[in-house]
Design brief:
single chain, elongated, alpha/beta
């Protein structure tokens, strides 16, 4: 022990072991340096596993080695378990080898290693502490500590023995060296500890031999160590210290395995703490070690880990964590991409038919071609995507395209395809289930799902879809039937218009009135259909009643279909408001040579508008209203900065701006730009161009698809235009192939010219005819809201005329006509209103005439007309206008025929005029169609105004709301005839249901024609000559000639045909021409008219038509005649009736007292509610007893009962005075009333439904049995083959094939030419394909028996009811085999043809469903007058549809084609049948072909 007086003793320990050359020690040492390194510098960062003993001469002579064969490792402060401290100085005895000679370096001590290592006194001046090999030669870069005093006294030895598998060294040789070394150091009498090194690679045999060696020596202690694993290193030195200092406690020697286990637990604990610390601290994978180490350097867990494991492992741990964070980020991004991929695929590849057969690679190419591809995917130059900077662009949601090339991408695509397939199947089954619900006829509105579920549980679709889908489908079905029931209920309320419109406006219905309403409506099935929704039904009823008594266009029950709103819009778009005292500014306008227009739009719309204008121009010259303008167009994008720079305004000098938009976004852009452009123009007022510039808003048509937001877009465009005080140009009604229509451009240009007129005075006003505030006639045209026709149709007779202009500002529903009526040009003010708006002015305003329009397709339209007309004063002329699609509707649709006939009868009864407008024809759209009516109004103007003044003076009431603000002239010149006036040409004849090509008159050659303003010919028939030579348009009132017997040949004709012929021959409603072939056959009596007034007058009555009736209402002062106001017009010399002479002697009555139809309708509701009617309540017709007629005129008479009296055709006594007809009526009256309906029904069933034939010539081919037209060699009639061949060669691209009617004349010509020559070539004839299609259908319509025999109809209907698709087709196949052979071959040929047509449905729009709708009445020819037939309409259609769809299966042995939806299933009964019939008009039937209908069976 060194003698040291310090409180901390110092011990020097020498570490020895095998050393020498490679030959002696092998390739590596025994671990002396590592053991010293680990003990002196225990920190992992200071531990070096490589310590070389081969040195250069320079390094050997350096201060660290200092020419010695030992190393000074430094000093360690040791603290024992007992708290005692000491200093330990460590010396390593080794042998350095020269790197040149590979022999030991020569030093001052030349002793061999064994003797030199046993030295206890070491000396080396200025020797530096050794740290690592890199220190040699670079001592200044490391910590420099000198060995104390340059000398040391060794107090103990640590003998290192390597127990691992040595490198090219034998353990026995090492043990021989150890024996020798031990014997030498034992002589020093110092404590020795045997350190078994490299125990982490220990060889058990070597360790046992070492233990044997230690056991054989006295006072030797073995410690198993591992410097690399830092196991038992400190224990080894502590054990030696205890032997050097006996005062210390003896340490416990622990085996290597136990110590290693404890060390690993310590390392694991420290590592776990450090990893948690890293996880908590580092959350961004972009960080680095420098940032983290600076942040954690003071943390104990960090310091402990660095001390035990070292910085390198810490950095590795951090790197692993950062990589984990990065991988997690990549995983999240990938999951986000893969999650969004199905949505993207659903957006880009949503068409199953398009991608079902594509591979994944082909699908990727298809996606690249989509315009949305660039917004969904991004193609990176480098791959994979997570190695690029796109990984960190979290704001970019586009999916890297290389993700699609992964297995996950392909899997998602395959799942997407399967999803589309399953979704298609699910939707098909939902639709099939919907069809199943539609077949369950007993489902009522408001019925809960639980009540219906049990009836459909066995359905295939029910089992396939989920409960949620079932409830969704049922909810949708309920919503449809509820909405349909509510619509039908609302329509029913309209049909009962007389029930609601019998009280004054702004009144409140009484309790009795409400009871009456409920009593009447309770008889209606449409009322009872909402039994389970009684609250909603009552709400609808109260809403309807509230509207009836307080009508406004804002609360109109038709919503946006309100006539008032539509008329305002059409007139605002097509007419320009005139300044007071000025005529139309486009009539004789001043010369304008050039107009500069700036076109503003977004996304190329401005350029498209410029191209459209140039396409309509010739060399930039545009023709408008007879003038030529040079247009300079400047299209500018709305986002262009040029719009906000006023310098271009001074340069271009625009006269106006066309602002075009097609979306809400572009409209908002334009609205913002208009305000800013106006501000720029205001700032440029210092320049020469300073006048205000008009801005025109133009709505572009969206031709690619139907825009559901178009009403919203139109409304917002109109609102913005009003806000900015600009003109708004709407899309005209109809379908146009381009975005802009010519009428839009013209309207916009007119608005610009109007602005120029006011701003620049470039147009001089033309002297006006008269002040606009003065109108000669005030006409009100009424139409019902929601009628199925366009407002343009009823306005076209006025708007298409050049003499039409807008009314005064503020009168949005008014237009002005300047027409020559009488001897001068008259100004006619026409106000177009809805019926509910007209009711308010009917009694309070001066109106010279009413034009009452109604739709022949809608019963409620006629009901509203009746309710309105019933309360109109009978001195006011009325023009009734029936509106339908074409004249053919009269023959093909009984409901339309019934409505038109009723309107004509009402007109006949009240001596009104009647005409028809057709939406598919331009013939009746001219202003001249109302010229006779205007003439009549002008003639009666004085009487009307006098009666109006008389009525106001007697009642002491003034006018209400000022619909007509200015009073008209009270006096007008007498009517004179101007034959040369172009505006006074004869109007078209009153309504005739005969088409242009149908000739019913015996001698067509006698018909004369006139040319109207549009170049159309229309017939003009001769009018009976009377004493006064007048314009043939307006015949004079003639004296009635009673008791004129009708001609026998007239009586024998079919009533409907007779009415048709008479309607075509008479020129007005006042006179009628005879049914004669030549004018010479006319009798003198034929010159007399037969007004309805004379037909009811008995010879015992007084001739004083102004007598006051003896009724209880005479106290009110209202004067009526004994016929309920039916005034007989006397023949006066001046052409006026007697009222002009005695205007003050008669108070006007109402039209309901002049028409039995109107009177019976208004009283029918009262009779149905009140069974006992007093004489005072029965109306004027009950006041006097009719002589010789019994109770003929009473309300109990069938003629005045709720039953429509006009349904008897021309036999109605209200029209004719035939005594034989009177006798028939008397006989019917005497029969019991209970049997009358049955008799009527039986008579109706024997009446032919349609005209006997479509042909007016004899034919040996058409109309003959089918078997007469075929041979075994030619089983198909030649005419059918020719038609089918022509259609398939030329018509498979024709839209609406078989649906659009062809020209009747062309159809007849085709059949006539074929009659004359069977080899006729249809292509040479150059006829329209629709005419050929019509001729083909006419061929089947003329057959004596239908192609599908009547005997098989019941079986087909029963087969159609089968729910299972395959079973239904099998049964139909068995039925079709029962066809007669001839019928079978023709039917097979026709169905095959229709199947080919359906395959071109993308161009023709004629699917199998549409074709079956058009063809099933032709092939089956049912009896539509039979109610039972109506219940099987949809079934018959579905049968034909099945034949067309499954043509290959039925006739060619093919497989069943899976339908896209469950079509062809039995339809529901009840609601909707009436609407179906309107689209399924059958061809004419022969009377003998109508068979007794089969009773329908209910569908479940």
């Amino acid at each position: 022990m060194a003698k040291n007086k310090e409180p901390r003793p110092t011990y020097a320990i020498s570490v020895v072991g095998l050393s020498g050359t490679e030959k002696e020690k092998g390739n590596c040492g025994v671990g002396k340096s590592c053991l010293c390194n680990r003990y002196v510098h225990p920190s992992a960062d200071c531990y070096y596993s490589e310590h070389t003993s081969v040195l250069s001469t320079i390094d050997f002579g350096g201060r660290v080695v200092n020419n010695d064969h030992f190393l000074y490792w430094g000093e360690v402060l040791n603290r024992g378990d007992d708290g005692l401290e000491c200093r330990i100085q460590v010396i390593e005895q080794t042998e350095f080898i020269d790197d040149q000679t590979f022999l030991p370096h020569r030093s001052t001590n030349l002793q061999p290693y064994t003797k030199r290592a046993a030295n206890t006194k070491l000396q080396s001046a200025e020797k530096l502490m050794y740290i690592c090999t890199d220190q040699l030669g670079l001592e200044q870069d490391f910590d420099q500590k000198q060995m104390p005093d340059g000398k040391l006294n060794i107090d103990g030895f640590v003998l290192c023995i390597d127990v691992s598998k040595g490198c090219n060294r034998k353990f026995d040789d090492q043990m021989k060296f150890v024996h020798s070394l031990h014997s030498q150091i034992s002589k020093a009498k110092k404590p020795i500890i045997i350190a078994a090194t490299k125990c982490d690679e220990c060889v058990e045999q070597y360790l046992r031999e070492l233990q044997t060696f230690v056991t054989g020596k006295k006072n030797l202690m073995l410690v198993e160590t591992s410097a690399r694993a830092s196991v038992n290193v400190e224990l080894c030195f502590n054990a030696l210290i205890q032997q050097m200092d006996k005062t210390r406690g003896k340490p416990k020697i622990i085996s290597y395995l136990e110590a290693y286990k404890s060390q690993r637990q310590l390392v694991a604990s420290v590592s776990d703490k450090f990893e948690k610390l890293i996880i908590q601290t580092v959350r961004d994978y972009h960080t680095n070690w420098k940032i983290v180490s600076n942040k954690l350097k003071s943390h104990p867990d960090y310091e402990e880990y660095i001390n035990i494991e070292g910085t390198k492992k810490a950095r590795n741990t951090l790197s692993k964590h950062i990589e984990q964070l990065r991988q997690e980020h990549i995983k999240r991004r990938r999951e986000d991409y893969l999650t969004s991929l199905p949505k993207i695929l659903n957006k880009l590849l949503n068409n199953l038919e398009e991608i079902e057969t594509l591979s994944w690679t082909e699908a990727q190419s298809l996606m690249k071609s989509r315009p949305e591809f660039q917004y969904c995917f991004i193609e990176l130059e480098q791959t994979p995507w997570y190695e690029t900077d796109h990984l960190d662009k979290t704001d970019d949601r586009r999916v890297p395209f290389d993700i699609l090339k992964t297995m996950e991408g392909e899997r998602i695509y395959q799942n997407h395809v399967q999803h589309l397939i399953s979704e298609k199947r699910r939707l098909e089954m939902k639709e099939k289930f919907k069809k199943t619900l539609e077949r369950v006829h007993f489902i009522s509105p408001g019925q809960p799902w639980e009540e219906v579920m049990c009836f459909v549980m066995e359905d295939e679709a029910y089992k396939y879809i989920t409960e949620s889908d079932r409830r969704d489908v049922y909810s949708r079905h309920q919503q449809e039937i509820v909405e349909r029931a509510k619509e039908e209920f609302q329509e029913m309320l309209f049909e009962h218009a007389e029930l609601f419109y019998d009280l004054d406006l702004n009144a409140t219905p009484s309790c009795d009135k409400m009871s009456e309403i409920h009593a009447v409506l309770n008889e209606e099935p449409r009322y009872r259909a909402l039994q389970k929704l009684a609250t909603d039904r009552e709400s609808l009823l109260l809403k309807h009643i509230g509207f009836v008594y307080h009508p406004t266009k804002e609360t109109c029950l038709s919503g946006t279909a309100c006539i008032d709103l539509k008329v305002e819009q059409v007139l605002a778009n097509r007419l320009v408001q005139l300044d007071h005292g000025r005529s139309n500014i486009y009539y004789n306008s001043a010369n304008i040579e050039k107009v500069n227009l700036c076109l503003v739009g977004r996304e190329g719309l401005a350029q498209e508008l410029a191209n459209e204008i140039r396409a309509q121009s010739t060399d930039d010259e545009y023709t408008l209203d007879g003038k030529i303008y040079e247009l300079d167009l400047l299209p500018v994008d709305v986002n262009s900065g040029m719009l906000l720079n006023h310098s271009w305004i001074s340069t271009f000098k625009p006269h106006g701006f066309f602002c075009v938009f097609s979306s809400i976004e572009s409209l908002n852009y334009i609205g913002d730009r208009v305000s800013r452009i106006r501000a720029e123009i205001a700032q440029s007022k210092r320049h020469r161009y300073s006048q205000p510039v008009p801005f025109i808003f133009i709505l572009a048509n969206q031709r690619d698809s139907v825009c559901k937001n178009m009403p919203i877009l139109r409304h917002q465009g109109q609102q913005l235009a009003n806000k900015l005080q600009c003109t708004f140009v709407d899309i005209p009604s109809g379908t146009f192939p381009r975005k802009f229509n010519e009428s839009q451009i013209k309207q916009a240009l007119r608005a610009v010219l109007k602005g120029l007129k006011h701003n620049f005075d470039m147009m001089s006003p033309m002297p006006s005819i008269k002040d606009l505030s003065e109108s000669d006639l005030r006409i009100v045209m009424c139409a019902m809201c929601g009628d199925p026709f366009s407002v343009d149709l009823i306005l076209s007779p006025f708007l298409d005329s050049h003499c039409c202009s807008a009314g005064q500002p503020g009168q949005c529903n008014t237009l002005i006509l300047d027409k020559i009526i009488g001897n001068s040009r008259r100004r006619i003010q026409v106000t177009v209103l809805s019926y509910h708006s007209s009711i308010g002015i009917r009694k309070d305003e001066l109106v010279h005439g009413y034009i009452l329009a109604y739709s022949a397709k809608r019963k409620s339209s006629m009901a509203m007309l009746r309710a309105f007309l019933a309360e109109v004063q009978d001195v006011i002329p009325v023009q009734l206008v029936a509106i339908t699609d074409s004249q053919a509707d009269f023959f093909e649709n009984d409901a339309i025929k019934e409505q038109m006939t009723e309107g004509e009868h009402i007109a006949t009864e009240i001596t009104a005029k009647f005409t028809a407008l057709y939406s598919l024809s331009q013939y009746h759209r001219q202003t001249e169609v109302f010229t006779p009516f205007f003439n009549e109004v002008l003639e009666k103007k004085s009487n009307i105004e006098s009666s109006f003044m008389f009525d106001n003076s007697r009642d002491g009431t003034g006018t209400g709301e000022d619909v007509f603000p200015q009073s008209p002239h009270r006096h007008s010149p007498a009517y004179q005839y101007y034959p040369d006036s172009e505006d006074d040409g004869e109007g078209p004849p009153p309504y005739s249901p005969i088409g242009d090509d149908v000739q019913l008159l015996p001698n067509p050659s006698e018909r004369k024609y006139r040319i109207d303003l549009e170049g159309n010919e229309y017939p003009v028939h001769s009018t009976p000559v009377v004493d006064h030579e007048r314009n043939h348009k307006v015949p004079p009132p003639v004296k009635p000639k009673p008791n004129v017997p009708p001609k026998p040949n007239v009586k024998k004709l079919d009533p409907n045909l007779l009415r048709t012929i008479e309607a075509g021959m008479r020129t007005s409603r006042w006179t009628r021409g005879p049914m004669m072939g030549h004018g010479d056959d006319l009798e003198a009596s034929d010159n007399y008219a037969e007004p309805a007034d004379t037909l009811l007058k008995s010879k015992g009555f007084s001739d004083d038509i102004y007598a006051v009736p003896e009724d209880a209402h005479s106290r009110s002062g209202r004067v009526r005649n004994s016929f309920g106001g039916l005034a007989l017009h006397r023949d006066e010399e001046n052409g006026f009736d007697s009222m002009s002479k005695s205007q003050g002697g008669r108070r006007p009555s109402k039209y309901k007292h002049r028409s039995k139809i109107l009177f019976s309708k208004t009283k029918a509701y009262h009779i149905r509610v009140h069974s006992d009617v007093s004489d005072d309540e029965s109306g004027p017709a009950m006041q006097k007893k009719k002589k010789g007629r019994g109770n003929r005129g009473s309300e109990e008479d069938p003629l005045l009962s709720p039953v429509d009296p006009w349904k008897g055709g021309i036999d109605n006594p209200a029209i004719t005075s035939d005594p034989e007809q009177d006798d028939k009526k008397m006989k019917k009256k005497k029969q019991p009333k209970t049997k009358e309906p049955k008799k009527t029904k039986s008579i109706k069933t024997t009446k032919p439904l349609y005209p006997p034939t479509r042909r007016n010539w004899d034919s040996n081919y058409f109309g003959v049995p089918l078997q007469n037209l075929v041979t075994p060699d030619r089983p198909i009639p030649l005419f059918i083959e020719k038609c089918v061949d022509y259609i398939e060669r030329t018509g498979l691209t024709t839209e609406g094939l078989y649906r659009v009617s062809g020209n009747k004349t062309d159809q007849d010509n085709i059949q006539k030419q074929f009659d004359q020559d069977h080899s006729v070539d249809l292509i040479v004839m150059d006829v329209a394909v629709n005419a050929v299609a019509g001729a083909l259908k006419a061929f089947f319509a003329d057959l004596p028996d239908p192609l599908i025999p009547y005997s098989l109809h019941p079986e087909l209907v029963e087969a159609a009811k089968i729910v299972d698709h395959y079973e239904r087709l099998q049964v139909l196949k068995e039925i079709v085999r029962k066809f007669p052979p001839v019928n079978y071959e023709v039917f097979k040929y026709v169905i095959t043809h229709l199947n080919r047509v359906s395959q071109h449905s993308k161009t023709t729009l004629m699917t199998a469903d549409n074709l079956s709708i058009c063809f099933w009445p032709t092939l089956m020819r049912p009896d539509f007058e039979n109610k039972d037939t109506l219940s099987t309409t949809k079934l018959n259609q579905s049968v034909i549809e099945s034949f067309i769809q499954q043509c290959q299966y039925f006739f060619y042995g093919g497989e069943i084609t899976e339908p896209s939806s469950a079509k062809g299933t039995p339809p529901p009964h009840g609601h909707g049948l009436e609407s179906l019939l309107a689209l399924q008009l059958p061809p004419p039937l022969q009377p003998q072909q109508i068979q007794h209908p089969l009773p329908p069976e209910p569908l479940i």
